[in-house]
Predict the structure of Phosphate regulon transcriptional regulatory protein PhoB.
Amino acid sequence: MNALVLIAEPDPFNLRLLQEVCEAAGHEVVTALEGGAALDLVARKRPDLALIDVGLPMHAPLPTPVVPGDDSLGGLEVLRVLKADPELKAIPVLVTTPADDVESRRASIVLGAEDYVARPYRVFEIQQRIRNALRRVIAERRLLSLGDEELLDPLTRAGSAAQMQISIEYEMTRAVRYGHPLSCVSLRVAGLGRVIAEHGREAGDGVLVQLTQGVRGCIRAIDHLFRADRDELVVLLPETSAGDAKTVVRRLREREESGGLAGAATGAPLGLEIGVAGRPESRATDGPALLAAARSSRRPLAKV
């Protein structure tokens, strides 16, 4: 994503460094040296992302400072104003701070900052924080752009493949940002083609509908279920490590053994295959990589 990035930084050297990093990544940059100018640029330009230094001066102090009597925290004042504005609060903000300023980093997160970057800057860290913040922006915009008919699979009423792609990227970005676990489960009906060939399309549809209902009975309300492909369901498990996801796998296996998952739709074994991947166990750094890891680990459900 080639984004418009606002950099609000009073130090010319740091400003130039941040600008070069952003421009090297293909982003357009607008800059401000003090808080009032930063707020004006945000209102006029509506950037996709803002990098705001905690020590940004406010030439016209706001009436209710974040820390009374401390004029060095203008960056937090700007952040507070942005997050209080309904039209601007969705813009992600990265706050830049000195390495030892733990209190300002804490305050910035409380006020709604997406993340923070500590000085002295490390280029790879700046790049990664910007990428993570923009991934969330992209995911949210894509989700908002989908119509109701695109959000759900018309047959199973699980989330659609399009919604899955957006949601997995969003959840992965959130997991990385907060250091929370996230797991992905891929469940494939290996024998679906045979069912359709022997019993017809309606029987195959019945398998998928029953399987979706069975999976819903094995997951939590906060988990996300999608029909990812013709013969595949995917479950996203927020706040769940790969180890804890084994509980879901066990429930699915027990339900399959009792015939309550999907086998009753045709009376024939369906060859269900399941794979699980999670962070932090997996080396995946984005949503597609996590899904690919789950798919590559699939094996027969009965043997898991």
